[in-house]
Sequence to fold (501 residues):
Amino acid sequence: MPDEPVRVRIAPSPTGPLHIGTARTALFNYLYARRQGGTFILRIEDTDVARSSIAYEKDILDGLHALGLKWDEGPEVAGQAARGPHAPYRQMERLDTYAAAARRLLEDDKAYWCYCTPEELDAERKRLEAAKLPPRYSGRCANLTAAERAAFEAEGRKPALRFRVGDEKVAFEDLIRGRVEIDTSALGGDFVIARADGSPLYHFTVVVDDAAMEISHVIRGEDHLSNTPKHILLFRALGYPEPRFAHLPLILNADRTKMSKRKSQTAISDYLAEGFVREALVNYLALLGWSTGTEEEILSLDDLERRFDLDHVQKAGAVFDRERLEWLNGQWIRRLTPDDLVDRLRPFLEAERAAGRIDRVPTDDEIVALLPVVQERLPTLGAIGDLVGFLFVDRVDVDPAVLVPKRWDRETAIEGLRAARETIAAIGPISYEADELEPPLRALAEARGWKAGDLFMAIRVAVTGRTATPPLFDTLVALGPERSLERLDRAIERLAAAEVA
RNA sequence: GCCGCAUUCGUCUAGAGGCCCAGGACACCGCCCUCUCAAGGCGGAGAUCACCGGUUCGAAUCCGGUAUGCGGUACCA
Fold:
């Protein structure tokens, strides 16, 4: 095949939020286009009017934008007109195109009107199933006479349009799986391409549009592999050139079934809301079913655009592994510049505030100051509240029981905290730095014969309310001398009061 | 049921006849670092390459069959 221009597309249905699987397919199409110097097209397949919504369309466009997958043709904003030489790119706005194609098939007798009701078809299917036969349309309406049609019309029946399947073998060369051959007799008979209400169905619109938009490579999920012969038959019947096909392995639930909302978290927006960064999402998704062929695994979108190829796409399905995503997310968070990280953290801190988990949102300067101890501790951006939220609440809740280190008793804890309080107070606000705090507190522990770790733990719990925090002295500095002493005082009171209880 | 696709450590994968009694990463375990938690470093455990036959001097890699899994089989996409 001569160098035809590469044109690929992602064709989501706005019947749900952007799904992990759709995002991965979009990514592979995008990467293929970029790598081949081709065109990446977004087409909205909204012919299932009952389940489609503009809100889902918006979620899908927003999600693709958030991942950095820019498309060359298609709608930019949900609901608004699309741009590109083949506009519109929303199927419900292309109905006349399908109607024209349907008319041609009808005129060529490659399609016919079927008056069977859903009930009749259902009964037929059940009968076949009961007889342990594969479900298949009988072809009852395949050769109706004009009189028979008129009789049905007189009954008020509205016909669906069926495509004649015929009896042959269809073979194609899948770019990932190699040669695939299917006998069309296994396709279940003539299939419906337009509903009784006139609205076109997926198998039909996908072919008409892929042809109209001059799609050169159809890269999609393996769940469409078995449907491909139907599409090829339609391409041929309509006299369109066939595109090349590449069927990607499925993304799987932990039980190795096709990934579903029911068993996994599938919405990209949910991952973004948790604080997964686009770099990690893209990196992880790219490595689900594809590899560089080397041992490299931290790859930016830029790297991927330069290296993606269909040869290294895996054939078998891949289980979605959240742990690995989290690890990659940490890798990417650690690579962000301070300014960038602050920008990305702010919305999450604002969300913490809105949820009432912190009492005020820190300033950018405060966040920047925290970065050295926070950046390597964030598995997700959303973990920020859990990590340092105690710095931005008016008062912490301290459990007296955890205030006492394992090797200590209550009295020692009170004594230790009092001594620590004096030591810290003596340092004063001017030299209140981590380097100034540590030596005297260590000296204190040594003088009293305490393990430094025990003393530090008691202080940590007193000022943060928790046993796992960023390094203690940085934490004290972030807290400031006043609030540090105040929290120590409160903790001492709590412990003293616990005596009574 | 029928049709199709797939099968390398728990998971993601490297591997395109000898470099592999199979390499990397996540997770797991241990050690180091260490004020806790992370991060990082080092090490460990973990795959008879689904199974059976064949081709070959030699097979994870080629061929055939079997098994298992998944997907499709809608007037959903």
Summary: The mean pLDDT of chain A is 95. The longest strand of chain A covers residues 169-174.
